[in-house]
Amino acid sequence: MNEFSKGQQLYLRRLRRHHRIVIVSRILILIFFLLLWEIAANTGLIDSFIFSSPSRVAECFWEMVIDKTIFLHIGVTLYEIIVSFLLVTFFSILIAVILWYSRKLSEILDPYLVVLNSLPKSALAPLLIVWLGANETTIIVAGMSVAIFGSILNLYTSFTSIDEEKIKLIYTLRGTKRHVLSKVILPGSIPVIISNMKVNIGLCLVGVVIGEFLAARNGLGYLIIYSSQVFKLDWLLMSIVILCIIAMVLYQGIALLEKWCRKKF
Amino acid sequence: MDAILKLSKINYAYHSYKGETKALSDISFSVSSGEFTAIVGPSGCGKSTLLSLIAGLLKPEKGEITLCGKTLDESTVNVGYMLQHDHLFEWRSVYRNILLGLEIQHKVNAQTRKKADALLEQYGLKNFRNAKPSDLSGGMRQRAALIRTLILEPELLLLDEPFSALDYQTRLSVSDDIGQIIRSSGKTALLVTHDLSEAVSLADRIIILSRRPATIVKILPVTFALEKDTPMERRNAPEFKNYFNIIWKELKTYE
């Protein structure tokens, strides 16, 4: 395997160089940005009371780690995101299957789904608080409401765009509609289901934070609203940074799932 | 000779909002057990519709189809159907693709599994048992699709242009290959094709259909005076050209 030709070696070297440049540049941009921010705040170029600074954000984070309050906020938000994401995944597959099963039903419900999907879901959050109370359920439902309608429509479109001939094959093997679902539609839609999950995890995060703005006593969304009211911008920026990290980690988790599925199927 | 399949005065039309398209009108013929029949006709004339009707996927508007004297609903005759494309599922291995029909009919057991392996070996796919369909060549894919059909032990085999998606060279060898497999296993087969030379090289009898709405123009028995009656030998025989020309002319007049 070591016996690569000159051309191949050159190609591989170039490829590695390319990757190195990409990664180093990414890190440099982050460091440059943080340094600029820190220096600007320290020299008074920007008002550190409003803009905070990386060191103050880090300090604030450390304080909250020591008094352990940060874990509660992160834990609550993470829990709400994951529960609403799992519920969205489950119900959107279930409803898309039902719609696929009955063409009549899907045609009847189509305008309602389209309206619900294009409705700005943040408008629903106050209503949910009145109906369900200012509690975790409301926040989870708010998270779901952002993702679920689009998810149903996406999955339904993918289910109905499966090759008619593949479905015919199942019938020629004397299968029923149930077999079409279990042997063709669902396994054939796994890539779409996963890419749909990638979108949903981000949307659930949005919905949960909106919910927490309005109805929470814990969680990062609550922390953001509270800190803006008491003008503790260190908290606010720290919460945003943590939300960024959570979004990235969850997205990577699904990317891993996708890789695993690719190998398996 | 007992007729395994009998169609009498079959009519079928497609409906859409804009109107009705008559596809088949008064089609009557029968197929005897062990016979290889080909149906040719201009493209879009309703040949495939005919197979869907026989397989029970569509219901005729008028007329009756019987298998061994019984209507399709009562019949116990096992009908196998091969489509234009192999439709092997990419998320299944070759072996699990072959088991698809058995899975649906709840017939997967030690005996059928053994048979699947035997068929894989017989048709030269043994080494690709656990491969993905995309690793197979066009001809191998079509053979895998044939095994998927044959493992259900059909008494009547419906072939809907099963070679049309292959390139010319593969097509010749696969039709040769599959033609011989079907002949040697003594299956009754009904092949739909628009390739006249394919029909002549494979069939005992050729049914020529007109343009839509399709009616039967002529039923042509095909016999070759050959020691070894294989599709390849047929293509080289002097009669081949004659049959080809007869069908060509028939199709021309009714165009």
UniProtKB/TrEMBL annotation, chain A:
GO terms, biological process: transmembrane transport
TM helices/strands, residue ranges: 21-40, 81-101, 113-133, 139-159, 199-216, 236-257
Gene3D superfamilies xrefs: MetI-like (1.10.3720.10)
A Gene Ontology term for the protein's cellular component: plasma membrane
One Pfam short name: BPD_transp_1
Membrane topology of the entry: Multi-pass membrane protein
Keyword Transcription carried by entry: no
Entry keyword Membrane: yes
Keywords: Cell membrane, Membrane, Transmembrane, Transmembrane helix, Transport
Source organism, top-level taxon: Bacteria
Stored InterPro entries: MetI-like, MetI-like_sf
UniProt domain ABC transmembrane type-1: residue ranges: 74-255
Subcellular location: Cell membrane
Family label: Belongs to the binding-protein-dependent transport system permease family.
UniProt-recorded name of the protein: ABC transporter permease
Taxonomic lineage from the root: Bacteria, Bacillati, Bacillota, Clostridia, Lachnospirales
Automatic annotation (TrEMBL), chain B:
Keywords for this protein: ATP-binding, Nucleotide-binding, Transport
Domain ABC transporter residue range list: 5-236
Keyword Magnesium: no
UniProt GO molecular function: ATP binding; ATP hydrolysis activity
Pfam families: ABC_tran (PF00005)
Database matches in PROSITE patterns: ABC_TRANSPORTER_1, ABC_TRANSPORTER_2
UniProt protein name: ABC transporter ATP-binding protein
Organism: Mediterraneibacter hominis
